[in-house]
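Need the bound structure for flavin-adenine dinucleotide, inputs here:
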Amino acid sequence: MSSINYKRRKVLKQFASMTALGAVNMLRSPGAFAARNQAIPGFQGSIIAKQDANYEERRLSMHWHHSVPKRYPDVMVHAETEADVIAAVKHAANNGQKISVHNTGHNAMGSSLRNGGMLLDVGSMANIEIDETNKLAICQPGVRSIQLMAAARSKGLSFPTPHCPTVGISGFTMGGGQGWNWGNNEGMACFSIAAADIITADGQLRHASPDENPDLYWAVRGGGPGFFGVVTKLWLNLYPLPKAIHASNYIIPLDRLDETTAISDKLVNQSLDKRVEFINLLAHNPVIPADTPAEQAKICFVTAFAFGDSEKESLELLEPITASGLGEMSVHKEENLPFSYEGLYNKYFSLQVPAGMMARYKVDNVMTNEPAKVLHDLADHFRKAPSHHAHVLAAMGLNIKHHDDACFSSLATTYVGCYAIWDHEKDDDANFEWLSKCAPIMDPYMKGRYANEVEPRFDPSRLRQCFSEEAWARLEQLRTKYDPKGLFHHYLNEA
Ligand SMILES: Cc1cc2nc3c(=O)[nH]c(=O)nc-3n(C[C@H](O)[C@H](O)[C@H](O)COP(=O)(O)OP(=O)(O)OC[C@H]3O[C@@H](n4cnc5c(N)ncnc54)[C@H](O)[C@@H]3O)c2cc1C
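Answer from helper R.:
Posting the output first, comments after.
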C-alpha cells in the first residue's frame, strides 16, 4: 500500500506530469505571455495589465490551487532582478498604486492577490549560492524547497525546507516555516534567517541583520503575508546534513483516536529526540473505496521521521515509537523505512497524485499545547467532512520558544491545521462551511496561530492572533516607520 494519499497536501493536476520547477517556470516564462509595453523607468521584466488579453490566464497562474480568490490587481509586474523590484516600487509609489508582493503563490488565502494596484511578482528571481565556510544559503526569494535542499546537500549541509518541493522560500521562511527536520531549528525556519535584503517603500535597499537595521531583521523573521517591504535576498543558516533518514507509519482506526493521542503525547513529551519529526493526521483511509461510510473510512495516520547520522542512530531514534503500542493498534503499519530527502518528497508529497485531487483548497489552524484535546473535539466534525480529501494535521513537538530578535510569537508545542480539499466549484460552499465550523471547535485550545496557513475570511482577527499583542503593536510601529503612506498592502482583511 502506498501512503502517498496521506501526504499533507496534494499538488495540482497540471503539475503532476511535469517537474515541479518546470511547471512553475513555464507559467512565468517571459515568452509565454506577451509583455505589455507599459513604461516603468528602468524595469526590464514583464508587465500585464487588466485590459490585456492574457490577464486572466496569468492571474489564475498566480495561485497554486484552483479556488483562486476573486481579487483583481490593476497590473501584474514580473521582476527578473533586484533593479526591477526597485524600479517597480518607486513607480508604484509615484503613481499612488498599492503593492502586493507575490512569490510562488502557495499561500492558501492567496494573500498576494488584492483588488487594484500592483501585484509585484518576485518568484522568477530564484538564484542560490551556498557559502560552505559560513554554512549559509544565499537565496533569491523564488528559490523552491527542492532547489535549496539539493544545493545545500551538495555541500553536506541541510535546511528545514518545506515538505512540498515547489514551495518558495521567502513566503515560507518569512511566515514561520515548519520544514523537514524542524526539531533541528527550534520548530520554525524563520529563526534561521541570518540576514535579508529588503526594498522598503522609499525604494531603498536595506540590509537587515542583527547589526544592521535590527528592527527590520526582527520583523522579517515571522512577519509573513503582510510584511511592509520586498525581500530580494535571504541569508539562511544551514545545518549538518543528516546522513540517515528513516520513517515509520501507522494506520489506526479513528475510534481509537484517544488511545493514539495519549501515546503520542507521552512519546513527544517523554521519549522522542528532537531529531524525530512526529505527526498525527486524521484522514480518509486511502485503500478503501471513496464511498465507504465515514465511520469505517476515517483513520488516524501516525508518522515519524528520524534524521540521524547513521542508520543505527536513526533506527534507535524510532525505537520508542516501535515499542509504544501504536503498532498493535494499527490496521496497517510500515516501520523503519529508509529514505533520502527526495524520497520523502516522493512518498509523502509526491507530484504523482491522481489528477485534480488538489483542485480546491482552504486551511485554518491553531497553535496549541493540547493537541490530544483538539483532535478529540474535532473528530466527529472531521467524520462529517463533505470531501474525503479533507484532513486534520497535528505537527507535534515543535516546542517553539520566544526569540527577542524575531516577531514570530505563536509559542506552542503543536500546530493543528484543518484542511478542506475538494474537486468541484459546486462544492465550494459546503467545504468552506465545514472549515468555518472547525474554528470554534479548535479555538478554545489556541495559544496562537500560524500565519502561513490561516483563514481570515470568516474572522479577520485570526491573522492578528498569529502574533502576540506586543509583537503586533511593534509590527504596526515599524510599518508606520518604514511604510508611512501604506504603499504595501496590510495583512488580508486589515485596513
Ligand atoms: C503544497 C504546499 C505545501 C506546503 N508545505 C508547507 C510546509 O511544509 N511547511 C510550512 O510551514 N508551510 C507549508 N506551506 C505553506 C507555505 O509556507 C505558505 O503558503 C507560504 O506563504 C508560501 O510561500 P510563497 O513564497 O509561495 O508565498 P506567496 O503565496 O507567493 O506569497 C504569500 C505572501 O507572502 C509575502 N511574501 C512572499 N514572498 C515575499 C517577499 N519576497 N517579499 C515580501 N513579501 C513576501 C507576501 O505578503 C505574500 O502576499 C505549504 C503550502 C502549500 C500550498
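Comments: The domain at 244-464 is CATH 3.40.462.20 (Vanillyl-alcohol Oxidase; Chain A, domain 3). The chain has a mean pLDDT of 89.
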